[in-house]
Design brief:
CATH superfamily of the largest domain: PurM-like C-terminal domain
Strand content: 15-25%
Shape: globular
CATH topology of the largest domain: Phosphoribosyl-aminoimidazole Synthetase, Chain A, domain 2
Number of helices: 11
Bound molecules: thiamin phosphate
Number of strands: 13
Strand order of the largest sheet: 8-10-7-11-9-12-13
Oligomer: single chain
Order of helices and strands: HHEEEHEHEEEHHHEHEHHEHEEE
């Protein structure tokens, strides 16, 4: 890189994380050389995941602030580690920035990124920065650790077990809906209709469930696990297919956020559509043996974390069905966000 580029990268990253923190995180050599050096632990396995955010696909100029983009790019990766029951440790950040993302905007993006890193104790150990012709692309690679042989996979759901979720879903999609509506409206008038802040916040600053994943691993009670990035129905389908089992979700047991319910009512949007197909919630869905269900709930409660039992696993063709209040069963389509629609 040129001197300019070095100066910028230093400006965005230098002094963000203390020497003490980086030492304690096992970082032998951090940002600045050709590669980072990290010490290993013999009683752990590594977890690796990568997740990318693209301007105008995952966010728009007017749906997220710069710091929100940085925060969410890392948070989505943290969620992938949480969904294995692991601990997030290090991250590498690759950014391709168009001219519209000047130095000041990039600095704010890194503000959000380091805010998330601090919250979850993640060391930023390197990355790559290039220019891009039009849209911003942020790609984060995350590294986590997990006790040998203990990672919680999607394929462990067994007939007779209960299905749980660690929080309400649909908030992020509703927040996005509100933000897009607000933008359309502000083209004509300057009247601002209130969107519940909780919805906007869950869209811009998702809170991945690392602690929940750790409880599920430490107790040994989580038999399958997945994070809700594409929507509850789609993630339930992934567990059903990997485990070769049917997941029955009870409509009445699905956790409903009060803010979401009133906003959906006011907007005339079907609440259930957001809850099942919204996506970007980053709560965890998984399964637990019925004999451990109460004790697990108690563990969650003791740590101030919610846990909702939303259904059961049955033997049979892999599929996901919704049992309505009246007891009728409706198959749920896989749904979810499709980046490559046919046609
Ligand atoms: C402006 N969205 C985009 S990607 C995705 C969802 C629900 C699924 C997860 O992505 N339009 C704007 N912003 C958004 N966030 C969406 C639409 C919704 P991936 O599969 O890449 O993890």
């Amino acid at each position: 890189p040129s001197q300019d580029e070095f100066a910028l990268i230093r400006d965005w990253n230098d002094g963000r994380q203390s020497e003490e923190f980086l030492d304690s995180a096992g970082i032998v050599l951090g940002i600045g050389d050709d590669a980072a050096v990290v010490s290993g632990a013999s009683d752990r396995e590594w977890l690796f995941a990568v997740d990318t955010m693209v301007e105008d696909v995952h966010f728009r100029d007017d749906t997220m602030g710069e710091a929100d983009v940085g925060y969410k790019a890392l948070a989505a990766n943290v969620s992938d580690i949480a969904a294995m029951g692991g601990v997030p440790r290090q991250a590498l950040v690759s950014i391709s920035a168009p001219p519209s993302w000047n130095g000041e905007r990039m600095k704010r993006l890194y503000d959000g990124l380091y805010e998330c890193a601090e919250r979850y104790g993640i060391a930023i150990i390197g990355g790559d920065t290039t220019s891009a012709p039009r849209q911003l692309v942020v790609s984060v690679t995350i590294i986590g650790t997990v006790e040998v042989g203990r990672a919680i996979r999607r394929n462990g759901a067994k007939p007779g077990q209960s299905v749980f979720v660690t929080g309400p879903t649909g908030l992020s999609a509703a927040g996005l809906h509100g933000l897009l509506k607000q933008r359309d409206r502000s083209k004509e008038t300057s009247v601002e209709e209130a969107i519940p802040q909780r919805l906007v916040l869950s869209h811009r600053r998702p809170a991945p469930s690392v602690r929940a994943g750790r409880i599920l691993l430490e107790t040994g009670w989580g038999s399958s696990l997945n994070d809700v990035s594409d929507g509850l129905a789609s993630e339930a389908w992934e567990i059903a297919e990997a485990s070769q089992a049917r997941l029955v979700l009870r409509e009445r047991a699905l956790p409903v956020s009060g803010d979401l319910a009133s906003y959906a009512g006011a907007q005339g949007v079907r609440l259930l559509d957001w809850m099942l197909y919204g996506g970007e919630d980053y709560v965890l869905i998984g399964t637990v043996d019925r004999i451990h269900e109460l004790a697990l709930k108690e563990r969650f409660r003791a740590e101030g974390l919610p846990l909702f039992i939303i259904g059961e696993v049955e033997s049979g063709t892999p599929e996901v069905v919704l049992e309505t209040a009246s007891g009728t069963r409706k198959p749920l389509r896989k749904g979810g966000y499709n980046h490559f629609p046919k046609g």
